[in-house]
Write the structure tokens for this entry.
Amino acid sequence: MPALCGSVQTGGIYDLLGDVVRVLVAEDERMLADSIAEGLRGEALAVDVAYDGEAALERLGVHDYDVLILDRDLPLVHGDEVCRQVAGQGRLVRVLMLTAAADVRSRVSGLSLGADDYLPKPFAFEELVARVHALGRRARRADPPMLERAGVRLDWAHRQVFRDGRYVPLARKEFGLLAELLRAQGAVVSAETLLEKVWDEHIDPFTNTVRTTMMKLRRKLGEPQVIETVPGSGYRIP
């Protein structure tokens, strides 16, 4: 990370959340955008990047993001207009506006457009991470404290999983896959949906990552198998 962003230890905040926060970084300074994205990925977040307002709106139309880190002075479509459209469409995504202007009038103006938070440049990366996680929690529809099905219990508060009372230690992506399957309440979840929800757009869509991670998850959950493969459709916990 560049000096203006600082550095942080990775993983801790994610463990408190027990879920993957999906972030779009809309910033026209490519080195800064890529640096922010790299740092947030190190925090176990799923991060995409747009270098102008038009690309940001396109991605927002395709993916369900939790947090939009939005530079105010974007080319093609100004950041203010991006913010207006996001607010006007009633999306769940929370907007963290970045700008070089740090005066009170600029902050008030940005918040009046529909931004949820405001961070002037330069900023400490630790503060950016904390604000992103806080906004991510606000963006998500509330899940019940426990998700349970077929003898599998997922505890959000402690990021723990149990199978028939037995504790099952899971890696982050395994936890994310299981959470999406439990949320579906028996419906089939496609590999493409799992890839989008648990990873980010930089993952190769033809990768076997979902299948490999699913194999590890099934092995840890043990016998009898609770995750069913539906040929040509995806996976489910019936």
